[in-house]
């Protein structure tokens, strides 16, 4: 078994994980919200035009979670969507207005059984949903490292009272992570290519159409190789902002924002 890799002369780097935790206070048309998983399923049925032929098709079902224990799992279930929705705010098509939490880098925490990691117990949960509490401001503390066996802030305690999460002010806790086996290309600087983590909050039946259709501030920026300049297309909208950096060569760039011509 190997715990590290020789990456340079007399330099060994250990295997490790990079983990990031975010607290998301989501209010969908008010603070009376619910959390559900939209679970993908398959079913077998007969074809209407062939009585003896079986057909397998995809379907889904929405499962509302009632308590913090129901919602918080250290191992995520199968293919599903995580949504926060308002049962009492529906679109004109009858769908409950919702937002979907998309975690592109769910972390399978490898040291769940190590007592020293109790100071970062949030890492055990790819996603946790809790009822908003004024005393649960953050999931960790700068002092947790001083006593990780009995941390000042133990995130797992937030969930032990098993509060109801049906029609309550909800908070989502998202953990993202990367597994890292060091290699020689990490010297002298670890590259960011392939090492990004991200999550999205996406409307899910919240709008009646794609909201970008009504955007009045669309901007498309492209490079003009022939003139060696940057083209800015605002699609007829006057451009009054100076947030786009004027082109500079590395030799004369001074770090200051220049106004657009």
Automatic annotation (TrEMBL):
Give a short account of its post-translational modification: Topaquinone (TPQ) is generated by copper-dependent autoxidation of a specific tyrosyl residue.
Annotated Gene Ontology MF terms?
Answer: copper ion binding; primary methylamine oxidase activity; quinone binding
The enzyme's first-digit EC class, named in words, is oxidoreductase
Task: Provide this UniProt record's keywords sorted from A to Z.
Answer: Copper, Metal-binding, Oxidoreductase, TPQ
Among InterPro entries, the record links this protein to: Cu_amine_oxidase, Cu_amine_oxidase_C, Cu_amine_oxidase_C_sf
The segment(s) forming the Copper amine oxidase catalytic domain are 2-213
What biological-process GO terms show up in the record?
amine metabolic process
Q: How is the cofactor bound?
A: Contains 1 topaquinone per subunit.
Cofactor names: Cu cation
What protein family does this chain belong to?
A: Belongs to the copper/topaquinone oxidase family.
- What protein is this chain from? Amine oxidase
- This chain's source organism reads Mytilus galloprovincialis (Mediterranean mussel)
